[in-house]
From TrEMBL:
SUPFAM superfamilies cross-referenced by the UniProt entry: Thioesterase/thiol ester dehydrase-isomerase (SSF54637)
Organism encoding this protein: Sulfitobacter sabulilitoris
InterPro entries noted in UniProt: HotDog_dom_sf
Protein's UniProt name: MaoC family dehydratase
UniProt superkingdom: Bacteria
């Protein structure tokens, strides 16, 4: 019989979660670079994401944004077309911005220490339909120093993988210690 994992009462965790947390904490002991050192101007990272109704429901519930425009899923009917002024159900406008960091930081490299998201400007160009597969692309466009602090600027684009519809653009700055 496997012993029950030990955890505190505030964070009940599965064995997988405990193992992941321990691996992350151990990785912090490794030699780490700052984000400034890890990124070069011109670096481009990109990932595709299928925006499923389930993903939208999880996000909308988490931020308590209960808008019928986002409903592309219903109990016992599963995936539905939904309705909004743009046709079918759409993605909450800033949901995709949440996923940019998972692209911006190269997951194949060790965790960058001391990074703080300090600037964010989003331009929404078109609603993203639920069910779309989007491509999130980040490009490191500048490194600069302001008030003796080092910043890395990224330009982000979010487009449809099928027809290249451009849904969103962002500019983000990350302060690197």
């Amino acid at each position: 019989m496997t012993p029950t994992p030990k955890t505190d009462s505030l964070r009940p965790m599965t064995q997988v979660q405990i193992d992941q947390e321990r691996a992350f904490v151990k990785s912090l002991e490794e030699e780490c670079e700052t984000y400034w050192d890890m990124v070069s101007i011109g670096d481009v990272l990109s990932r595709d994401l299928e925006v499923t109704p389930e993903l939208v429901i999880l996000y909308a519930d988490a931020v308590e944004d209960y808008n019928p425009w986002y409903e592309g899923w219903r109990m016992n009917e599963w995936r539905i077309t939904g309705a909004s002024p743009f046709g079918g159900a759409i993605v909450p406008p800033l949901m995709i911005s949440h996923f940019v960091l998972s692209v911006q930081f190269d997951h194949t490299k060790p965790f960058a220490i001391g990074s703080i998201h300090t600037y964010h400007d989003t331009e929404i160009l078109a609603p993203i339909p639920i069910g779309a597969t989007i491509r999130i692309t980040t490009t490191a466009t500048d490194k600069f120093i302001k008030r003796d602090r080092r910043y890395v600027r990224h330009e982000v684009s979010v487009s449809d993988v099928r027809d290249d519809t451009l849904y969103m653009r962002e500019v983000r700055d990350i302060l690197s210690l």
